[in-house]
Write a structure and sequence with these properties.
globular; two-stranded antiparallel ribbon; TIM Barrel; alpha/beta; 8-stranded parallel β-sheet
Length: 391
């Protein structure tokens, strides 16, 4: 009997695919409708991921795991059940974060609140959440300032808001060092929703902000596909900037139609081409970190369909990895790229007085330079044919 061929798109823990308790555990609620799926306990959510197969890890906000008003006894029971589920499904906890946006106390922000007691509480809550994440082995700590913004600029001084954010990060970095948690902080940008305007709205804002911290080596970014797409930006370019700066500590994968609310669709379910170039970037630059699917199943899904959502997220990434290999090995594409990417001894490798003098003395024929072919239409068509399975 012939041996059954292995599906090349089957995920494995080696792929470092992760989900959140809040993603696969999403109950289907939206601003206009009540839940459509029964809530799962943290342990049940891990078991659901175990059924999906190939999942490396599960991440959580502090209150995804332990409700904000849980007693000590309730907390210990929940953690015991969760730990047992992790063991039986061989799933890890690579990342943790804090919910600083859901409770009414954070209605006007956490680290940027105008109330100093609320800023102090936000620090305390984050410190305790860092302890919780460390208890389960998390090494990346994501920070998303979902309420760090304003609807009216009369309410807050935006310069002071940046300073308050910096003070909070500096404090938490020192706490991380003192407690020897070993966290790397990953800052997540978003332009709007739930606030009208959120500070540090795009990944580039955070890359500039990080350089002003006391421990910039400890802090990077966690770009999310949907967040940059909401603002009409090219997500691949945002990730490229983070990679080039050595600051891509984590990444959130999902899908999004530009100009809409935060849809959090299954990865590569809408923008195939953008998803392809993102995967290509991560493959070509050998990104080794976690690939976190910060998305959720359609509101119409039951729990069985949520499993299909999880499988589809991972499968789509694997399919696009195969398309990247095809692109990188395609003779026609590589020939076109060699034609397009021209090298020249006229361009200095770096500055020196001699190089500057030589460059000033060089004669360029701009008309001949302008006439050199750039067959981008042909190149782009070939990319499309690869993605559509023609070649």
């Amino acid at each position: 009997m012939a041996k059954k061929k292995q599906d090349p798109y089957t995920p494995s823990p080696a792929d470092h695919f992760t989900f959140g308790l809040w993603t696969v555990g999403n109950v289907g609620r939206d601003p206009f409708g009540e839940p459509t799926r029964p809530a799962l306990s943290p342990a049940e959510t891990v078991d659901l991921l175990g059924k999906a197969g190939g999942v490396y890890g599960v991440n959580f906000h502090d209150n995804d795991l332990v409700p904000i008003d849980a007693t000590t006894a309730e907390s210990e029971r929940i953690k015991k059940d969760f730990r047992a589920a992790l063991r039986r499904n061989k799933i890890k906890v690579p990342m943790a974060t804090t919910n600083l946006f859901g409770d009414p106390v954070f209605k006007d922000g956490a680290f940027t609140s105008n109330d100093a007691d609320i800023r102090a509480y936000a620090l305390q809550k984050t410190m305790r959440a860092m302890e919780l994440g460390a208890e389960f082995g998390a090494k990346v700590y994501v920070m998303w300032g979902g309420r760090e913004g304003a609807e009216t600029d009369a309410a807050k001084d935006p310069v002071l808001a940046v300073k308050r954010s910096r003070d909070a990060l500096n404090f938490l970095c020192k706490f991380n060092i003192e407690r020897k948690f070993g966290y790397r902080f990953a800052l997540e940008a978003k332009p709007n929703e739930p606030r009208g305007h959120i500070y540090n709205a795009v990944t580039g804002s955070y890359l500039a902000f990080i350089a002003t911290l006391d421990h910039p080596e400890m802090v990077g970014v966690n770009p999310e596909f949907a967040h940059e797409q909401m603002a009409g930006l090219n997500f691949v370019h945002q990730v490229a900037a983070a990679l080039e700066a050595g600051k891509l500590f984590h990444i959130d994968l999902n899908d999004q139609e530009p100009g809409r609310y935060d849809q959090d669709f299954r990865f590569a379910s809408v923008n195939y081409k953008a998803a392809f170039f993102l995967v290509k970037l991560l493959v070509d630059y050998k990104y080794k970190g976690m690939k976190h699917f910060d998305s959720h199943a359609y509101r119409t899904s039951d729990h069985k369909d949520v499993i299909e959502f999880a499988r589809g997220s991972m499968r789509n990434y694997k399919i696009l990895e195969a398309k990247v290999r095809k692109f990188n090995n395609d003779r026609q594409i590589q020939s076109l790229l060699r034609t397009i990417d021209r090298q020249s001894s006229n361009l200095p490798g770096g500055y020196s007085s001699r190089a500057a003098k030589a460059l000033l003395a060089t004669e360029f024929d701009r008309r001949k330079l302008a006439a050199r072919p750039l067959p981008y239409e042909k190149l782009d068509q070939r990319v499309g044919e690869i993605l559509m399975g023609v070649v």
